[in-house]
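Memo subject: From amino acid sequence to discrete backbone structure tokens
Action wanted: Derive the backbone structure tokens from the amino acid sequence.
How to read it: Take the token row as a discrete description of the fold.
Attached in line: The record itself begins immediately under this heading.
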Amino acid sequence: MNNTYIASGWFSPEWLQEVEDIKEVLTSLDLDFFSPKDYAICEADAATNTQQAIFDGNVNHLSTCDWMICNTRNKDMGSIWEAGYFYSLNKPIVYFCSGLPPGAKFNLMLSASGIAVCTSVEDLREYLYESKKAGKLLRRAYSGLIE
């Protein structure tokens, strides 16, 4: 269960807080993680070679990490791309969609590609705690409405 890739935007205070909350949950359970936000931030006017180096570094971490937490808030294109790539590597994905209100819909392609969908920090903490006790990520099918 170690070696987690955190796919998430961090482009608003709300998003940034969620990334930090996810990292805190992983740290509290003594799970290692890679967060692209902490690795390298690509400036809007970055040189092509810098952009390529950051892309290559993230892809390398996707290849070496064992599983992923993907934050779906605001449907960040980079995070969704990372999840698709990760799925193609046959590695487990846990989706995180904090604040999904009752009756809200979750994307079919994401729910079908993930092993779990956690809808709050507390839900994520409980799911990972139970998974760690079991010695593996537990499959918890999404049962809510889909879009």
The chain has a mean pLDDT of 93. The chain has six helices and five strands. The longest strand covers residues 67-71.
